Amino acid sequence: MNAVLQPKEAFGTTVPSGVDLVEYYYERGFSDGLPVVPPTRDKIDDIVARLGGEPAFVEARIAPRWGELTREVLAINMVMAGCKPEYTPVVLAAVKALTDRDFNLNGVQATTHVAAPLLIVNGPIAREIGMNGGVNAFGSGNRANATIGRAVRLIMLNVGGGWPGDLDKSTLGHPGKYTYCVCENEAQSPLAPYHVEHGYKAEDSTVFVMAAEAPHSVTNHISNDPEGILDTMCSAMSTIASNSAVLGGHIAVVLGLEHSLTIAKHGWSRADIRNYLFHNHGNRFIDLAYGHRYGKVYNRNLPKYYKREDNTRIPIVHSPDNIHLFVMGGEAGRFSVLIPGWGHMSTPVHRPLDAKASGGNGGDCVGGACAL
Question: Before 64, cis peptide (omega within 30)?
Answer without folding.
Answer: yes
